[in-house]
Amino acid sequence: MQRDLPTPASALAIAAHPDDVEFGAGATLAKWAATGCVVHHLVCTDGSKGTWDPDPDLAALVAERQDEQRAAAKALGATGEVVFLGWPDGELDAGVRQRWQVAYWIRRLTPEVVLGHDPWKRYRLHPDHRHAGFLTVDGVVAARDPHFFPEQSIPHHRPSALLLFEADEPDHVEPVSEADVERKLAALESHRSQLRSTMFVDPGSPDHERQLEAFRARVRDGLTEHGALAGVPLGEAFKAITDL
Ligand SMILES: [Zn+2]
C-alpha cells in the first residue's frame, strides 16, 4: 500500500453529482488545500434527481445544489474553480461530447493530480458514477495527447497522478488529520438539500442532533477503515495511477 503523495500544486476532482467529491476525497482535498494546493471541482450532472420530494421545482433544486457545491468547496478550503457541465442527473453518458468537455477542463485548469470515481468498481449500480469514472480516465487520456481534440486550441496537459476514489482495489492511502476530517464533515453538511436522502438527517425531526452525530460517526468509521489499510489512524483510500 503506497501512501501520502507530496502535496500537488493543483488538483481537479471530477464527480457525477454535487457531494460525490466530498464523500470520496474531501479530507484529502482539505489537507492539500491547507498546504497550498489549488483545488478545483468539476461536476458532470445537474443533480436534479437529488430529492425525495415527488413534485420538486427542478430549476430551483439545480441552483440550490450548485450553491451548496460552492459552499462545500469553500468549507474544504478549496480556492479553485467549481465547474458544472450540467448533464441531466441519471442520464450522464460517457460519450465523446462529454469526454471533450472533461479533456477541455483538464487542459484549461492544468491539474497536477486528477481525482474521480473508480469506473471499475464492481457491482456499482449508479450509472452516473460509472460514467463519470470513465469520463475521468478517458478525459485524462484525451487531455494529455496533442492530437486529441486539436480544435480546443489549448495546450495538451498530462497530470502526474490519477487517484480513483471508491476504489475496487485500493493501493494508496492519504493519511488525514482530525482537522481534515472536520473540514470534510463541514463540506458534506454544506449539501443541505441532501441531508435527508443521502445523510439520513431530517432537519425537522426532534431527533436531528442524534441523526447528525450518527452520520458523522459513519463518515469517521469509513476514514478509520481506510486508514487501517496503511496503518494510520485516519485516511482516504484510492487506486493510484501514476504512469500517465
Ligand atoms: Zn453521486
The level of helicity is 40-55%
Strand order in the largest sheet: 1-7-8-6-5-2-3-4
What share of the residues does DSSP label as strand, in percent?
15-25%
Order of helices and strands: EEHEHEHEHEEHHE
Give the integer mean of the pLDDT values: 96
- What is the makeup of the main sheet? 8 strands, mixed
What structural class should be given to the helix and strand makeup?
Answer: alpha/beta
Which spans of ≥5 residues are poorly predicted at pLDDT below 50? none
Instruction: Compute the separation of the termini in Å.
Output: 19 Å
- Give the oligomeric state of the chains in this entry, treating copies of one chain as homo and distinct chains as hetero: single chain
The gyration radius over C-alpha positions equals: 17 Å
Bound ligands: zinc ion
| Overall body shape | globular
Number of strands: 8
How many helices? Answer: 6
How would you describe this structure to a colleague?
The chain has helices at about 20-35, 60-75, 95-110, 125-145, 180-190, 210-230, and strands at about 1-5, 10-15, 40-45, 80-85, 115, 160-165, 170-175, 235-240. It is an alpha/beta fold and about 240 residues long. The site of zinc ion has 4 residues, from loops.
